[in-house]
Write a structure and sequence with these properties.
Layout: E1 12-16, H1 21-32, E2 36-43, H2 50-63, E3 68-72, H3 82-100, E4 110-114, H4 119-132, E5 144-147, E6 150-153, H5 161-170, H6 187-194, H7 201-228, E7 229-230, E8 233-235, H8 236-240, H9 244-255, H10 266-277, E9 283-285, E10 291-296, E11 299-304, E12 312-315, H11 330-334, E13 339-344, E14 350-353, E15 356-359, H12 360-366, E16 378-381, E17 387-389, H13 409-413
Parallel strand pairs: 1-2, 1-4, 2-3, 4-6
Antiparallel strand pairs: 5-6, 7-8, 8-11, 9-10, 10-11, 12-13, 13-16, 14-15, 16-17
Helix pairs in contact: 1-5, 4-6, 9-10
Length: 416
């Protein structure tokens, strides 16, 4: 057995290990190839043999001078979905352990987390995706994925589960088979035990070719959707010309830009499509998140609507600098004022814009200020409360040394 070339011999990895044949085969292959790694193990205490597995893994790790990070957790009935609970615990632990390495020297930092998913897992996932009829951007399992900026690598996707078991037995690698894998109340187990294990190598090969063809179609579809998404937003007029099913698929692809958003059913997307078609305005908060979905300037967009309270008092001779993108100079702001005050501008204030005195709320529309920024956009005021300067918004900005003030939206977003 060989590891995929994506595993680098000069890097260190964190390996998720359950003491099953898949993960123990991965651990053995890494040792065999002189790859540096540590192990992350979770004892869920869901089975009688959990403590035995922990004990045997620690014994094996000690024999091979391997470091094991372990976590003990106990399931509570209020957690309801046991599979989801275990998955969340697992990835939270991987993230926590992976991030610990960031404070070490470069050689001791983890390159990625290695997961022992195999070819059977890939096919099972494909069947589950088809059965659920849920939208996916990819069928089966990818070798490399990212979760919260952490890379996860699956180096065993080209090996059957039975082959990994045989490898462990031939090489005297200890492992234990989780008896819950034979419980067909879980859909994945039912696919594995009633269908997958009865397929011969030729039938498996045909299945893998089918998945490959499906993913080729997906890539073509994804590429066409990608072209429709400009600056993380969708053009309303193009969406309205689409068939409802195409729009649903496009919207699900759009949601892949926001993997933390999961509160969209087909019915909800259907409702969004209907509102677009009927030219109705959309501005709704997405449940249990700080994000909104809204229409602005002909585009459908998902974004936060930022809110920050800040107040800066700056003297003429002070040493405080602010970054505004402006077409003005230092003297034009300070010439008649010893002190200026900067805080979020009131939308009801008036300001001279392009030769006309207008309400700030109207100016926001004229200069196409994104909805996301309107509650934090700064105004420069005199001590008497007169609005003396309103920074302009420009989508594409080039900072120059000549600018006295260049407005840096990111700095205001971060203000608590």
């Amino acid at each position: 057995m060989k590891l995929k070339k994506i595993i680098k011999t000069n890097k260190k990895y964190l390996v998720g290990c359950s003491f099953g044949p898949d993960s123990m085969a991965l651990v053995s292959l890494l040792i065999e190839n002189n790859i540096s790694f540590d192990i992350a193990f979770i004892n869920y205490h869901l089975r009688d043999e959990s403590n035995y597995e922990e004990k045997e893994l620690l014994k094996f790790a000690k024999l091979h001078n391997l470091k094991v990070y372990k976590k003990e957790v106990f399931y509570k009935k209020e957690d309801k979905n046991i599979e989801s609970w275990a998955r969340n615990i697992r990835y939270d632990f991987f993230k926590e352990t992976f991030n610990l390495s960031k404070n070490r020297n470069k050689k001791e930092q983890y390159e990625a987390v290695l997961i022992a998913h195999n070819e059977d897992d890939l096919i099972e996932t494909y069947f589950l995706q088809k059965e659920r009829k849920s939208y996916v951007t990819f069928y089966g399992l990818k070798t490399l994925i990212y979760k919260e900026d952490i890379p996860y690598i699956r180096p065993l996707l080209s090996y059957r589960k039975k082959d990994l078991e045989i490898y462990c037995i031939k090489n005297n690698i200890p492992f234990n088979i989780d008896k819950s894998n034979f419980d067909n109340k879980y859909k994945r187990n039912k696919i594995r035990n009633e269908y997958l294990k009865n397929l011969n190598d030729k039938e498996i090969k045909i299945l893998l070719e089918e998945i490959k063809k499906e993913n080729k179609k997906k890539r073509e579809e994804n590429n066409s959707f990608k072209k429709m998404i400009k600056s993380n937003r969708l053009k309303v007029e193009k969406c309205k010309k689409m068939d409802i099913n195409d729009f649903i698929n496009l919207f699900y692809y759009y949601l892949s830009y926001f993997p933390f958003l999961k509160n969209f059913s087909k019915e909800k997307i259907n409702d969004i499509y209907l509102k677009l078609f009927l030219n109705k305005n959309i501005k709704e908060r997405i449940i249990n998140t700080p994000y909104y979905i809204f229409i602005e300037y002909g585009y459908l967009k998902i974004d936060k609507i930022y809110e920050s309270k800040y107040y800066f008092e700056v003297n003429k001779n002070g040493n405080k600098y602010f970054r505004f993108l402006v077409d003005t100079k230092y003297n034009e702001i300070f010439s008649n004022y010893d002190t200026i005050i900067i805080h979020p501008v009131s939308r009801d204030d008036f300001y001279s814009y392009k030769g006309k005195k207008k309400r700030v709320s109207k100016i926001f529309i004229d200069m196409k200020l994104p909805t996301s920024y309107r509650k934090i956009w700064p105004g420069v005021y005199s001590k008497k409360g007169e609005l003396i300067y309103l920074p302009r918004y420009m989508e594409k900005v080039r900072y120059t040394k000549k600018s006295f003030l260049v407005f840096d939206i990111e700095s205001l977003i971060k203000i608590e």
